[in-house]
Design a protein that fits this description.
The chain is of the alpha/beta class. Helices cover 42% and strands 11% of the residues. It is built from 26 helices and 22 strands. The protein has a 5-stranded parallel beta sheet, covered by helices on one side. Helix 25 packs across helix 26. The structure holds glutamine and zinc ion. Glutamine binds next to loops. GO terms for molecular function: 5-methyltetrahydropteroyltriglutamate-homocysteine S-methyltransferase activity; zinc ion binding. Its cofactor is Zn(2+). InterPro entries: Cbl-indep_Met_Synth_N, Cobalamin-indep_Met_synthase, Met_Synth_C/arc, UROD/MetE-like_sf.
Length: 745
């Protein structure tokens, strides 16, 4: 029999119950017991519904109230000193590590967050040093295994492996220079040994598969995803593990060599056939073909059909979507539907004659055929335009040095120009107005008037504050990707398809790209030109870049990401050209997702960077030399992709610099970055107001590294999550520091 498995499940609940409970707990409205109860209900629902779908291996232990990496840190006693000794309950220490805490005399910032491989899910980075003493504070894997058992569901516990835990960790402040977290592996392993022995004792060693199981440890399914094993395969196949999971969604090409490597062993192979990263219905015929190959090579008892990764990256269920058309709904599968898919594929591979399985296979055949038919109706105009892209469309007319002179005359910005990253506080009033528009409680005209008023407020504030290059403040945008998706052809939207970006505090519902993308008409011109019309100062247009729109959407699976990115780039190119025609003289095209899109394997980087950078250039290069192009990135780890950042050839880039101790400026200096750059002078992710001396010190440190003529002065990201009070105070200090720099340098 071929078994089926789900590697992990969304943790927020079909109606975001966990998010609501966590936020209520943070607000002091519910007790820790209420919170635990709300979480338990969601876990129980997940376990039982996955079981009802006929899945054999059901995950437990991967649920989290904040982040699963943070769960491991807390369990392993990897708790930075700054969170200890405040008399906080363990749950509050845990949340303080995730989001900081500023109450009752305790004032500790949040830990650093990083993106989980190539996804937009952020994990809390563990901090370790030579002094770290690992110990098992509690065994969450055992607790949740027992919890599931009590709910009548036998599960397969999920644990983050020790190597991954340490590779994702960073050296803490206490660590000596040159310290490598992975050097702690021998110290960490005993904790895993205990953790696994406890699991075995609790009964977590479920058949099938009945493979070698070391006396004190349960059988291990070594789980890999998001890319291929490549050169690690021969090593992995020799490990004393009972099973190996491979991602055949991202890397179907690895199946043959993996089969050859595991065949002589007794390893059970788990085939990641149902994508954990997209929302498309699995093509059963294609999956069965791959699965049959494995069954032929290893025998049915050594094959498991699984999701490619945890389903954390997919929404809970399609059943919550009421607005998609029947045709669209038939294209998709969310987490619960995917659970049913693995069960059906496994049953088919086991030769099941069950009527329900036969019917599911038949229905899938019909759906896939319909989807293929839809896919074959491409927008020929867009396809032809992409095919006709020429290298000169990627380049500005003159090199940066020439453009810089022309732009200086045109824009007349002072030395050390001040600007912001685009958004201003998204106030309750703005969100309410948008909600009212959605419900039809106000007319389009009323809403537009409201937005104009907001823009006017933001413009007047910037004038008064003394900023040089203004923005309109983005009040009309619900989200920097959705806003554009809604105005482009080729996207559909969900109502309830929430994914976690940063714990349940920041979630997004990515739009879905379903067909060729094109721009029916201008998207932002009306707002930018309105903003420019009410001020004499230059106004910066504001767009989200092609790679970011692609990475923060669910892309199509039938055509390449490159093609989708180029289609987006052409739509944005037209928008950029229209903005220039409308009298806008600087345009920012944000690409905060360009780095996260990097494939896991370095050998794949060049191919990605080629089309990603080309897409940005295609979207921005259609203008005259006097238009100043900007781009923005929310991070600054450019060491390994520096040439690509230079190749973007944006006139100005703004980056994060306040958290990274300006390490990156040395990178820019080292490589001789030639264009203008605005390293963020303060961190907007905190309500804290930076003092003007603090900003001056930062500018001085920057100017010790960068040439005067290249420096812009700006915060490190958009201000949409900030309140007006701290925004006003912070920007006043920023302007004062720039004025000081003009006199001093
Ligand atoms: N222009 C966007 C803003 O200011 C940029 C957001 C981002 O970088 N994530 O909100
Ligand atoms: Zn940013």
């Amino acid at each position: 029999m071929v078994a089926s498995s789900v590697l992990g499940f969304p943790r927020i609940g079909a109606n975001r119950e966990v998010k609501k409970a966590v936020e209520a707990y943070w607000a002091g409205k519910i007790s820790v017991d209420d919170l635990t109860k709300a979480a338990a209900d969601v876990k129980k629902t997940s376990w039982t519904t996955i079981k009802e779908r006929g899945v054999d291996f059901i995950p437990s232990g991967e649920f989290s109230l904040y982040d699963h990496v943070l769960d491991h840190s807390a369990a392993f006693n990897v708790i930075p000193k700054r969170y200890v000794g405040h008399g906080l309950a363990p749950i509050d220490v845990y949340f303080a590590m995730g989001r900081g805490r500023q109450a009752d005399g305790v004032d500790v910032p949040a830990s650093e967050m990083k993106k989980w491989f190539d996804s937009n899910y952020h994990f809390v980075v563990p901090e370790v040093s030579e002094e770290t003493e690992f110990k098992l504070n509690f065994n969450k894997a055992v607790e949740e295994f027992k919890e599931a058992k009590a709910a009548g569901v036998s599960t397969r516990p999920v644990v983050l492996g020790p190597v991954s835990f340490l590779v994702l960790s960073k050296a803490s402040k206490e660590a000596s220079s040159g310290f490598q977290p992975i050097s702690l592996l021998p110290k960490l392993l005993p904790v895993y040994k205990t953790l696994l022995a406890d699991l075995k004792a609790a009964g977590a060693d479920t058949p099938p598969p009945t493979r070698r199981s070391p006396p004190i440890a349960p059988k291990i399914m070594l789980t890999t995803y998001f890319s291929r094993l490549d050169s690690n395969l021969s090593f992995v196949a020799k490990l004393p593990v009972a099973g190996l999971h491979i991602d055949l969604d991202r890397a179907p090409g690895q199946l043959d060599e993996v089969l050859a490597a595991v065949k002589p062993t007794s390893i059970v192979l788990s085939l990641g056939l149902v994508s954990g990263r997209n929302i498309w219905k699995a093509d059963f015929a294609a999956a069965i073909k791959l699965g049959q190959k494995a069954v032929d090579a290893l025998g049915a008892d050594r094959v498991i059909v699984a999701t490619s990764s945890s389903l954390l990256h997919t929404p809970v269920t399609l059943a919550s979507e009421k607005k998609l058309t029947a045709e669209q709904k038939d294209w998709f599968s969310f987490a619960l539907e995917k659970a049913a898919e693995v069960a059906t594929i496994a049953a088919a591979l086991s030769g099941s004659q069950d009527a329900a399985v036969t019917a599911a296979l038949e229905a899938n055949k019909v759906s896939i055929a319909k989807r293929r038919e839809f896919e074959s109706t491409s927008d020929d105009t867009v396809r032809k335009r992409v095919a006709a892209i020429t290298p000169d469309q990627l380049e500005r007319k003159s090199p940066f040095a020439v453009r810089k002179e022309i732009q200086a005359k045109h824009l007349k910005l002072p030395k050390f120009p001040t600007t912001t990253i685009g958004s201003f506080p998204q106030t309750k009033e703005i969100r309410q107005a948008r909600a009212k528009l959605g419900k039809g409680e106000i007319t389009n005209e009323e809403y537009d008037k409201f937005i104009e008023k907001e823009i006017e407020t933001v413009v007047r504030f910037q004038e008064k504050c003394g900023l040089d290059l203004l923005v309109h403040g983005e009040p009309e945008r619900n989200d920097m990707v959705q806003y554009f998706g809604e105005q482009l052809n080729g996207f559909v939207f969900t109502q309830n398809a929430w994914l976690i970006d940063v714990s349940c505090a920041a979630m997004s519902a990515p739009p879905i790209i379903v067909s060729d993308v094109s721009r029916p008409g201008p998207m932002t011109v009306r707002w930018s030109s309105y903003a420019q019309s009410i001020t004499k100062k230059p106004m910066k247009g504001m767009l989200t870049g092609p790679v970011t729109i692609l990475n923060w959407s669910f892309p199509r699976a039938d055509v390449s990401r490159e093609l989708q990115s180029k289609q987006l780039a052409l739509a944005l190119r037209d928008e950029v050209i229209d903005l220039e025609k409308a009298g806008i003289s600087a345009i920012q095209v944000d690409e905060p997702a360009i780095r996260e899109g990097l494939p896991l394997r370095r050998t794949d980087w060049d191919a990605y960077l080629k089309w990603a950078v080309d897409s940005f250039k295609l979207s921005t290069a259609g203008v005259t030399d006097q238009l100043q192009t900007h781009s923005h990135f929310c991070y600054s780890d450019f060491d390994d992709i520096f040439p690509s950042i230079q190749r973007l050839d944006a006139d100005v880039i703004s980056i994060e610099a306040s958290k990274s101790d300006m390490k990156l400026l040395n990178t820019f200096k080292h490589y001789g970055y030639s264009n203008q750059i605005g390293p963020g002078v303060y961190d907007i992710h905190s309500p804290r107001v930076p003092g003007d001396q603090e900003i001056k010190d930062r500018l001085a440190a920057m100017l010790a590294i960068l040439p005067d003529s290249l420096l812009f002065v700006n915060p490190d990201c958009g201000l949409k999550t900030r309140g007006w009070k701290e925004t006003e105070a912070s920007l006043a200090n920023l302007v004062a520091a720039a004025q000081w720099a003009r006199q001093t340098y």
